[in-house]
């Protein structure tokens, strides 16, 4: 046959005597030799072999030869581990650019050989250690999403060159986000890092691997921020968020693998603290700069620093204890808190904070952070010195000296400064030598500057949680379906463990690292309810209103009372207005019913009790739930809402035969009451029953519990109250002769089997 491809494919299947491998080995050695001719198209490959030339020309062939050459590669890969290493070191990174940009058909790509290579622990360890494959893949991911593309090739960014971030955030509307071919690249990285030897390598060198991965995560932090629409609805709903969530799903799985590398006894306390410090530095540089600023919000310096404000919280009018004076007691109860200044209702908030998810995964290894575990490891300073390759690194006390709070204080003191921008350069590096004065061996507690940095770290997941609460409340309804879709995907089972649970874990960890009072006040401030829960802010004049209107109203009222000669009124604490003193039943009745105006008797249905429990009271049950025909207490009682009579539903004692059909008492009662229309309240089921001309349907329960929920058949045993809006809807439907229409629409929507005449 003339084409060479089939001959070579036949050689991989041929046998020389009884040996089926010798021809494959000969063919493999031939592919690893240098080519005889020099082509200009292969000049970009240094020290190229015939195999490298075939890889370069693979995308230029048509489908038939590509499939045949894949069979040749598959036969050579199955020879031994050495052949896997020889081919695997050349395959992935050189072909990822072609796969992302040029490949027409994914099934003919040779990139998928990576799955056979990366799942072999020895092969993955050799490739990662000797060929820097993890860093090359991360560099390709950064170059692809930052749109560093020249011709048909992705420019690989050197992830280990510097710790500062000099490139702008990614654009979710760019072509790389619209392509779905990045998913296998993330999967290959996950398979590569999931093997046990590679995980040990990551845990032993957090400076190299966690630092490179943190820089990759940094370009996705704060992508696609959302801003609440207040005055008008969003006219154009962009669907770029779908592509961003696809990237988030793939990146979140890799984050979990990198975090799991420090568990299982593979990492020392010093290495784990080094990794945590690296991630904290990147969070502060990105989030405190322009990581969450959208295109229309960018300032001239391409960044915006985090602002702080002081807020007082607590009760200053407490009684003294143990003979102390009132002033000392007030000073200890009401405090000034330094909080991050941000309003979720007006500022940009993004769902995507991959660096925080990586930090949460690292913090989950609490066994490594235990002081007894840390006693057998080196000091924090020695670990940092070995990681940095510096002999003059700072010396510090034992890693966990002073507890987790002081350890984080030392780590945050060495991290990036709050307010750094993308283009800024932090002179001290991640653990700079010029900041030794802040990390002396004295082991002091967390400084105010470190406390501010930790507030910045926890504030971004807290913003997401506050935005979720506002979306579910309906405050973001003007943003359209886009914000609703993002919320559903963020809390979906595929992303819940990777994103939502991680944000909650960061918030829980901050309660251990920081003062609990500061964290709780920060939560109240971010949710916008700090003034509501502040005891001092509740003591204001009535009625409560805005500051401007309150001042003008109080001044005009004071001038009027002074002219009239009346004494000034005593300010009433608005806490009495917020918490009314009434029984739960009365409170639920007021919330559900409001002010009810009575109607003439001809327009009213039979009165039901405001609380359903009153039907089963002593003496009331026998009087109200007794059948008027058989004079017994029905098993399934139904109260006619037209006249108030109690009848038996589906009972053998009150059933008549009408020709060939048996008719229940609910249908027979229509002859004496409502004619062809009947409306009943089923006590046991806590539902309404509509009947018309041998047809019927069940209506919505008129009773709800204090939380506004339905308790069908009273299974939960909660006290239920008559809901005025539902009760009024039943009355209006009956007055408008709408019962037959309701029954007809229900029968059209469901498969009805009949039998309503037996009720």
From TrEMBL:
Please state the Enzyme Commission number of this protein. Answer: 2.3.2.27
Question: Which segments show compositional bias classed as Low complexity?
Answer: 545-567
Residue numbers spanned by region Disordered: 537-568
**An annotated GO cellular component:** ubiquitin ligase complex
The source's superkingdom equals Eukaryota
Domain called E3 ubiquitin-protein ligase UBR-like C-terminal: residue spans: 579-735
- Pathway assignment: Protein modification; protein ubiquitination
Q: Which InterPro entries match?
A: E3_ligase_UBR-like_C (IPR044046), UBR1-like (IPR039164)
> What does it do?
Ubiquitin ligase protein which is a component of the N-end rule pathway. Recognizes and binds to proteins bearing specific N-terminal residues that are destabilizing according to the N-end rule, leading to their ubiquitination and subsequent degradation.
Record's protein name: E3 ubiquitin-protein ligase
Origin species: Mycena chlorophos (Agaric fungus)
Q: What is the lineage of its organism?
A: Eukaryota, Fungi, Dikarya, Basidiomycota, Agaricomycotina
């Amino acid at each position: 046959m003339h084409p060479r491809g089939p001959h070579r494919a036949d050689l991989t299947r041929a046998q020389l005597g009884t040996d089926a491998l010798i021809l494959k080995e000969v063919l493999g050695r031939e592919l690893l030799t240098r080519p005889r001719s020099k082509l200009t198209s292969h000049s970009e490959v240094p020290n190229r072999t015939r195999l490298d030339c075939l890889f370069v020309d693979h995308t230029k062939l048509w489908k038939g030869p590509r499939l045949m050459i894949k069979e040749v590669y598959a036969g050579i890969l199955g020879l031994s581990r050495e052949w896997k290493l020889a081919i695997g070191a050349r395959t992935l990174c050189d072909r990822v650019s072609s796969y992302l940009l040029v490949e027409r058909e994914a099934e003919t790509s040779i990139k998928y050989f990576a799955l056979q290579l990366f799942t072999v622990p020895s092969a993955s360890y050799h490739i990662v250690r000797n060929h820097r494959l993890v860093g090359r893949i991360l560099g390709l991911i950064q170059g692809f999403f930052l749109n560093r593309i020249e011709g048909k090739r992705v420019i690989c960014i050197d992830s280990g060159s510097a710790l500062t971030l000099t490139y702008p955030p990614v654009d979710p509307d760019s072509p790389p986000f619209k392509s779905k071919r990045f998913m296998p690249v993330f999967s290959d990285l996950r398979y590569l890092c999931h093997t046990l030897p590679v995980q040990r390598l990551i845990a032993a060198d957090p400076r190299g691997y966690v630092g490179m991965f943190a820089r990759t995560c940094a370009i996705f932090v704060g992508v696609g921020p959302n801003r609440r629409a207040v005055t008008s609805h969003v006219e154009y709903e962009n669907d770029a968020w779908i592509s961003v969530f696809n990237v988030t799903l793939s990146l979140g799985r890799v984050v979990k693998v990198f975090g799991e590398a420090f568990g299982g006894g593979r990492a020392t306390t010093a290495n784990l603290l080094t990794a945590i410090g690296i991630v904290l530095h990147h969070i502060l540089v990105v989030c405190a700069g322009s990581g969450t600023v959208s295109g229309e919000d960018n300032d001239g310096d391409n960044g915006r620093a985090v602002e702080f404000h002081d807020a007082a919280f607590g009760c200053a009018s407490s009684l003294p204890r143990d003979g102390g004076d009132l002033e000392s007691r007030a000073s200890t109860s009401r405090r000034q808190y330094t909080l991050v200044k941000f309003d979720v209702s007006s500022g940009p908030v993004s769902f995507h904070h991959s660096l925080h998810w990586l930090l949460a995964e690292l913090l989950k290894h609490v066994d490594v952070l235990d002081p007894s575990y840390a006693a057998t490891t080196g000091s924090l300073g020695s670990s940092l010195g070995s990681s940095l390759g510096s002999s003059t690194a700072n010396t510090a006390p034992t890693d966990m000296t002073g507890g987790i709070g002081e350890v984080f204080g030392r780590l945050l003191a060495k991290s990036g400064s709050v307010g750094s921008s993308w283009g800024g350069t932090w002179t001290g590096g991640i653990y700079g030598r010029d900041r030794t004065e802040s990390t002396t061996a004295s082991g002091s507690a967390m400084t105010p500057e470190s406390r501010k940095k930790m507030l910045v770290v926890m504030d971004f997941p807290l913003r997401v949680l506050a935005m979720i609460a506002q979306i579910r409340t309906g405050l973001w309804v003007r943003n359209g379906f886009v914000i609703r879709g993002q919320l559903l995907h963020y809390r979906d089972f595929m992303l819940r463990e990777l994103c939502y649970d991680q944000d909650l874990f960061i918030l829980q960890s901050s309660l251990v690292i920081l003062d609990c009072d500061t964290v709780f006040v920060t939560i109240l401030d971010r949710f916008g309810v700090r003034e509501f829960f502040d005891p001092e802010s509740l003591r204001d004049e009535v009625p409560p209103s805005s500051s401007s209107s309150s001042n003008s109203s109080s001044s005009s009222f004071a001038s009027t009372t002074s002219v009239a000669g009346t004494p000034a009124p005593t300010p009433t604490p608005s806490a009495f207005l917020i918490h009314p003193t009434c029984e739960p039943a009365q409170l639920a009745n007021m919330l559900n019913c409001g002010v009810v105006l009575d109607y003439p008797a001809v327009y009213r249905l039979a009165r039901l009790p405001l609380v359903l429990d009153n039907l089963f009271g002593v003496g009331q049950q026998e009087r109200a739930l007794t059948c008027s025909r058989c004079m017994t207490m029905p098993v399934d009682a139904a109260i006619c809402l037209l006249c108030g009579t109690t009848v038996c539903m589906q009972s053998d004692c009150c059933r008549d035969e009408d020709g060939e059909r048996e008719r229940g008492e609910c249908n027979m009662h229509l002859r004496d009451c409502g004619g062809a229309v009947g409306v009943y309240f089923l006590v046991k089921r806590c539902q309404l029953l509509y009947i018309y001309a041998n047809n019927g349907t069940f209506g919505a329960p008129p009773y709800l519990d204090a939380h506004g929920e339905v308790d069908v058949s009273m299974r939960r045993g909660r006290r239920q109250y008559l809901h005025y809006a539902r009760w009024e809807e039943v009355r209006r439907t009956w007055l408008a002769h709408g019962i037959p229409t309701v029954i007809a629409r229900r029968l059209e929507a469901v498969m009805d089997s009949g039998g309503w005449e037996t009720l």
